[in-house]
């Protein structure tokens, strides 16, 4: 019996080409059967609700109503501002932690990984209230600042934008550490050894080798963190002030307080479209930058 899965097919005026034989087609059909449950799951639990959400957003002139609401416009600006700030801080801290993990020994790396994973072991509400206890007027941080003589009165550390960013960074940090660490772990150590043997200093090795080769991990971490940060809801409520509400809080306000479900759906679609556009532009810029470096 022949074991070949490809058979030549004559083509007029040219050499013969190959097309999948019966066994090759059976393998393709097998892959489709394996993917079928995932596709059905996505259609039922993701695409169908998303389609209904988009459909309900066009009812009762929802877009016209919500887009002229000054509170909605302010929450959109807050969402972009807070998300970008949280992304920058998270990626910078994540890169430093990933560098330490990359250079640490086996035992130290296991301990550091446990510390990085610690935010995953507690709920976001617990983390936010823990920060609220630390940052309140009679909390540990203010007591420490007054104890060392830096301040004579409690500093307002809670219920402002800085507190929201602190809480979000704490929750988002693992999403930045692991992509960056994976990118650093893929770097060949011999590149740094070769550079040092030629007289390069540590700063030059980092600037010319480590940082450029870890750029894919930085890009992935920034994109992931930004997408997640745009949907934060509890952190602005617990740690922010009235002027720090994000778009998720406005969606909840329209749905529960105003019972305006079409308006809430329109806000959700606007947020999705806004994030999708920014992600597309971000990827386009990264792709153009990568092509420029190759040239």
Could you explain the architecture of this structure?
Strands 1-2 form a two-stranded antiparallel sheet. It is mainly alpha-helical and 295 residues long. Strand 1 and strand 2 form a beta hairpin. It has one domain: MetI-like fold, CATH 1.10.3720.10. The N terminus and C terminus are likely disordered. It is 74% helix and 4% strand.
Summarize the model shown.
By secondary structure, the chain is mostly helical. It has helices at residues 22-56, 62-67, 70-103, 106-117, 124-135, 140-147, 161-185, 189-197, 202-213, 215-229, 234-239, 247-257, 261-294, and strands at 6-11, 14-20.
**Widest beta sheet: strand line-up:** 1-2
Q: Nearest-angstrom radius of gyration?
A: 26 Å
Helix content: over 70%
CATH architecture level-2 label: Orthogonal Bundle
**Biggest sheet overview:** 2 strands, antiparallel
What is the CATH first-level class name? Mainly Alpha
Mean pLDDT: 84
What structural class do helix, strand and pairing data support?
Answer: mainly alpha
Q: Could you name the CATH homologous superfamily?
A: MetI-like
Can you count the beta strands? 2
Strand content: under 5%
Supply the number of helical segments. Answer: 13
- Count up the domains: 1
| Bulk shape | globular
- What is the fold named in CATH at topology level? MetI-like fold
Low-confidence stretches: 1-6, 291-295
Cα(first) to Cα(last) distance is 51 Å
Secondary-structure element order, as H and E?
EEHHHHHHHHHHHHH
């Amino acid at each position: 019996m022949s074991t070949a899965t490809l058979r030549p097919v004559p083509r007029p005026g040219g050499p013969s080409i190959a097309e999948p034989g019966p066994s090759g087609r059976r393998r393709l059909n097998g892959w489709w059967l394996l993917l079928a449950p995932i596709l059905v799951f996505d259609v039922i639990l993701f695409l169908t609700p998303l389609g209904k959400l988009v459909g309900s957003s066009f009812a009762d002139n929802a877009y016209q109503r919500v887009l002229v609401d000054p509170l909605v416009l302010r929450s959109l600006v807050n969402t972009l501002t807070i998300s970008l700030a949280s992304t920058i801080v998270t990626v910078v801290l994540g890169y430093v932690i990933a560098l330490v993990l990359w250079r640490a020994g086996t035992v130290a790396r296991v301990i550091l990984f446990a510390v990085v994973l610690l935010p995953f072991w507690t709920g976001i509400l617990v983390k936010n209230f823990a920060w609220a206890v630390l940052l309140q007027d009679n909390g540990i941080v203010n007591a420490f600042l007054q104890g060392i003589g830096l301040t004579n009165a409690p500093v307002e550390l809670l219920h402002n934008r800085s507190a929201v960013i602190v809480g979000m960074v704490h929750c988002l940090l693992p999403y930045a550490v692991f992509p960056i660490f994976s990118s650093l772990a893929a770097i060949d150590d011999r590149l740094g050894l070769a550079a040092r043997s030629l007289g390069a200093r540590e700063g030059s090795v980092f600037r010319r080798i480590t940082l450029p080769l870890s750029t894919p991990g930085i890009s992935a971490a920034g994109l992931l963190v930004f997408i997640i940060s745009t949907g934060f809801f509890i952190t602005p409520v617990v740690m922010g002030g009235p002027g720090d509400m994000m778009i998720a809080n406005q969606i909840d306000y329209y749905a529960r307080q105003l019972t305006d479900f079409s308006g809430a759906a329109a806000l959700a679609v606007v947020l999705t479209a806004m994030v999708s556009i920014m992600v597309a532009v971000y990827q386009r810029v990264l792709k153009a930058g990568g092509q420029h470096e190759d040239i």
